[in-house]
Amino acid sequence: MASGRKDFLSQAAPENYVAGLGRGATGFTTRSDLGPAREGPTPEQIQAALTKRAQQLGAAAPTAYGNNSREKGGKEDEKEEEDERFQDPDNEVGLFAYGQFDQEDDEADRIYQEVDEKMDKRRRARREAREKAEREDFESKNPKIQQQFADLKRTLASVSEEDWANLPEVGDLTGKNRRDKQNSRQRFYAVPDSVLAGARDSAQYGTTVAEDGSQTNAEGEGAGTMTNFADIGAARDKVLQVRLDQAALSGDAASGSATSIDPTGYLTSLNKSESKSSEAEVGDVKRVRVLLESVTKTNPKHAPGWIALARLEEIAGRIVVARTLLAKGCELCPKSEDIWLENIRLNEGHNAKVIAANAIKNNDRSTKLWTEAMLLETDVRAKKNVLRQAILHIPQSVQIWKEAVNLESDPADARLLLAKAVEMIPQSVELWLALAHIETPENAQKVLNAARKAVPTSFEIWIAAARLQEQMGTFEKINVMKRAVQSLVRENAMLKREEWIVEAEKCEKEGAVLTCGGIIQETLGWGLDEDDDRKVTWMEDAKASISRGMYETARAIYAYALRVFVNRRSIWIAAADLERIHGTKAALWQVLEKAVEACPQSEELWLQLAKEKWQSGEIDEARRVLGRAFHQNPNNEDIWLAAVKLEADAKQTDQARELLATARSEAGTDRVWIKSVAFERQLGNTDDALDLVNQGLQLFPKADKLWMMKGQLYEAQKKIPQAREAYGTGTRACSKSVALWLLASRLEENNGAVVRARSILDKARLAVPKSPELWTESVRVERRAKNITQAKTMMARAIQEVPSSGLLWTESIWFLEPRASRKARSLEAMKKCENDAVLFIAIGRIFWSERRLDKAMTWFEKAIVSNSDYGDGWAWYYKFLLEHGTEVCRPGYTPLYEHSANILIQEKRADVVTKCTTVEPKHGEIWQSIAKDPVNAHKTTEELLTLVSNTLN
Fold first, then answer.
1. 361 contacts 373 by C-beta, under 8 angstroms
2. Which UniProt keywords apply (predicted)?
3. Are residues 425 and 327 both part of a single domain?
4. Do 319 and 405 share a domain, yes or no?
5. What is the pLDDT of residue 213?
6. pLDDT for the residue 267
7. Of the residues 834, 868, 898, the one at which a domain ends
């Protein structure tokens, strides 16, 4: 079977094949290949070619042993880089010029190139990131000038054209600075007496010869006599008088350099001086006059040029010239009403009426000229005649009709004029509304209907119609605003929602409450889709109206929002807050009743309603409210505890105890157990309270308040070891409770174990490192132990640990700083604590101690505003008013009668008590210690305020 492969002899020779190469044969080329046959180069030819190539490269000719330089003994660095000829494999020269590369060499080069590219690609990301980081670091350390001013260049985009125009010229700043330096180096010397004497005698020419032969002046003073200081003083006065007289001769009263003042023209001279000072910014009066005269000559038909030139002459005091210029300007520009008005103003009191008549002849359709002519008349009849003539010439002028109506004293005549006016100008909404305003309600309705047909795009007419319906008592029967919205939408004249709110507030200001509500009801949702956050938008609208004092508008906004979002608790709470602060009690009850019906699961609304009923003295009604709340929220602890508080305040002890027992079984939370223990403790049942607290700790071992109450119960019984054990166990179970650590430390300190108290506080700070209360207590322990140095050291550590604590800064300012440095220390504290009520109280006390009562009151009020829940702030302010109310009831005001001052003080104190009762503060060191005392369990906020203020020192 024959094979398909060719035999060896018939195959093509491999590339670069040379026959007999392995036996020592050499290759040759025949004529049939490239031309005539030739031998290869001889060694001599190769050596010559290498030498020639070396000369071209500027190197020594090579030999069999290397370069000639080495053969001659020249020494080169062994680390010298290789010749350029051997670096590029694609550009071989010299001995390698005759090398032949085959396909395998190309394949190897390609493979090496692919490997290099792959390795470069793997390292590229890291290399580029490194290079980018190095470049950014270099640019940040060496920024370009362009980058340094980039932010300033961006802010230039906000500069208006007016600001650009008002930029001052650079001027010769360099020369100015150089001149200032030269002037500062100048030396000034006192004027010699001889100069003054010479100036004194400069105006005198008569001389006489004395008996001794010496020449004397007119006053008999000899040339060689002793200096007379009285005469020198007189000479100084004379020189000053001469200078003043010269200034008076060169100046005038208007410039302010005259020495005499004309009483009759004093004010006029002041006006002129002010005008000249303003003209000085533009240039000198003469130069401006030349420019304006050039304007009037170049363009005599340009009225503003004549007006400007006349005003310049008026400023210069040349009234007659100004009037002449305006008369000429009126001749050249008879159709310009501005120049006629200027001429009338300048000639008022002389021939202004004649000028006005000429002006109207040339401009009989100018409303301003007719109005000015009417104002020139003094008689009402003459005024009416002028306006009637004006109506004949320009019947479409609303201003003329309004002036004519205003002159009428009889309503019937005014009504006739307005009827004629709306007939002549049916598009004037203002005239229609004026006519409807003076008509009877029935006729006004007809007028507004006619106005609506004449001007269908006017929203003012619809609002006036709604207000008319409110005035007539038929607002509920006809929804005018609904029809208004439909009509305006049809006419493409609907306002934006914000603009309708503004119109509603205007109606509220003018007493149209129903119209205000109608506007809000029909337009509040205009332009808002369901996808928009309508609730947030409407809440912001209501808050904005409240901030402007528009409570009816805000009430209408809440009502509309509640119709859309019936079950939103936040809107109901906001509406209730509005009624509580700015409404009536009945309105508040009504809102809360609707709220609990809409949101029956919201215990907050139930509790607010029950609280309002209870505070009004309706205990039974409050019980019924809580009963309904129980039915809707059967196991809610807030409602249980509210019911217990209600019964406890009503002195129904047994019923309150039963409610607590039921609450512990049905809603047994730690809070219910805490309230149960507190209830028994308030009644003085210490054993029952201890029994309950032990039961509660079995269920809730992590409740820190139960541990605190257990320790306090033992401490009240003087059982110090048991109290210490309770606090110790509690701090181990609740290591993050700051109040528990404080009670444990104070127990040891009160019993004389200061070292143990210090150790407890050290452990507490390790458990709660950033607590300002623990740091403050550590400082106080050292201070009470008379270790002031240690207290200051501890305070320094505390401020480094918690630099923004007003409590620490207050402790440092009042107890560790001398009186003189308290202000500086408080300023440093203000930089660290921006809005801290405790620090504000401390600053107010500093001003109080310095008797700067106005500032003290300001800081006390600032503390209350910043944190109204801080009870100590209210107490300090109330104590301040009790002691110094007479002096601060009105800063800078001294009452004529002490009785009136006392009334103002009582009002101020009553206002503080009322606001404190409304806020019901819960926090504050002194406030909590007194409010949580079982003895003060049932005291009101006003009673607590008095107790705390009396305790403060």
1. no
2. Coiled coil, mRNA processing, mRNA splicing, Nucleus, Repeat, TPR repeat
3. yes
4. yes
5. 40
6. 36
7. 834
